[in-house]
Amino acid sequence: MCQQANEALEARHGRKYSVGCGPCILYVASGTATDWVAADLGVQVSLGFEVRGGGGKGGKSGFVLPEEEIVPLGEICKTKKCHIRGFLFSLFPIFFSFI
Fold first, then answer.
1. 5-47 pLDDT, tens per residue?
2. Is 50 a catalytic site residue?
3. Nearest alpha-carbon partner for 92 in 45, 26, 32
4. Is there a contact between 48 and 34 (Cβ–Cβ < 8 Å)?
5. Apex CA 95: angle with CA 93 and CA 99, to 5°?
6. pLDDT tens digits along 60-86
7. Where are the domains of the chain?
8. Which residues have CB under 8 Å from 52's CB, separation 6+?
9. Fewer beta carbons within 10 Å, N or C terminal of the chain?
10. Catalytic, out of 50, 67, 69, 75
11. Do residues 13 and 23 lie in contact, with contact meaning Cβ atoms separated by under 8 Å?
């Protein structure tokens, strides 16, 4: 599902992203949103998206994006979210008809 969303993203926006578990492709972090929904809400499968940062001089500006990149990043997130929602709707149409 996530790989297919990533392929849709690349087809639409021309950018490639990594797909996999957070600690496997990024870094180990505790107390994330995915930890919270698993532990406190009992959700068995949760997804998290790491978005690109601003890079900046020497890559040190963290997640502060230049103004011209804000809308494209929103479009990228929307493409991925819509693809995943469509996949889940195909599996659970009654649940997602209420969202």
1. 888 878 887 877 788 877 888 778 888 887 888 888 888 777 7
2. yes
3. 45
4. yes
5. 105
6. 556 677 788 888 888 888 888 888 888
7. 2-96
8. 65, 73
9. C
10. 50
11. no
Can you tell me whether residue 98 is helix, strand or coil? Answer: coil
The answer to whether the CB of 80 falls within 8 A of the CB of 5 is yes
- The total number of residues shown for the chain amounts to 99
The residue behind tokens 């979210």 is 81
Amino acid in the structure at residue 96? F
In contact, 61 and 98? CB cutoff 8 Å: no
d(CA 20, CA 68): 28
Token code pair at residue 44: 């068995």
Both tokens of 32, joined, read: 């994330």
